User: Fold this.
Amino acid sequence: MSEHIDIGPDHRLGLVLGGGGARGLAAVGIVDVLEERGLRPAMVAGTSMGALVGAFLCAGYGAAEIHALALGSKWTDVIDISASGGLMKGDRFAQWLADRLPQTFEELDMPLVCTATDIDSGELVILDKGDLIVALRATCAFPGAFSPVRIGERNLVDGGLKSTVPVLALRGTGMDRVIACDFQAPLGRPVVPAATDAFRTWARFWETLTFRRRNLAADILLKAVDILQAEVCRRQLLDDPPDLLLAPPMPGVNLEDFRLAPKIVELGAAAARAALGNPDQECEVAP
Assistant:
């Protein structure tokens, strides 16, 4: 990437929105700022939460409408318990999507590319046509949280396993400029300490149920996934570097921290404003 690059409303802008669970809500703040600057993407690629935000953008929702949805929705409304394969079936989530989005990719106002992972073969799968609702269920199906989604002969889960910032999905699409957004968790945070007495054990159990704290086993597992994803992402961004990479610092935010949605959205907006600078000047990009 060059130190300075011009990104203006006349460019065909590709927007890549990474995954990250609740951290991915920073995409809402970034979309807010892009709209302020008159920068509407010509195409969006995304995985997991990034694909979800991208779907609403591609369906014609304005930044304010997406913002209102992100802050006004109760995430408990989309949870349904599964007997096997995951904590949540995803049926309620699918209905929530169907009530607000077109049924197919072809009905969107602008092109959207979602990524998912074939849990059997380990392959990255590109979803850009046909049933939009099923595709969004697949790209958001974090293993162990949502059941895999069957599309054709494949069992699909969260695309972030193979490409958490899928710039590669825009390869060959003819975009003049590409802005990529990385919402991965920082690696420098230590795992949570184990509880040492009964009171603390109960307190941590309650905090875990209310998404305020992870238990030790879950935190170690998710931290291991973070380490692997960070290395894969680093290599992929070297192969397909965007013109501008936005990575909002969110050191105290975990992927399950949806209760922090207003803070997360603002952190995304702040990062975008800092990177884009004065709207009358060219954008400054870190080397």
In short: The first strand starts at residue 4 and ends at 5. The first helix runs from residue 26 to 36. The radius of gyration is 18 Å.
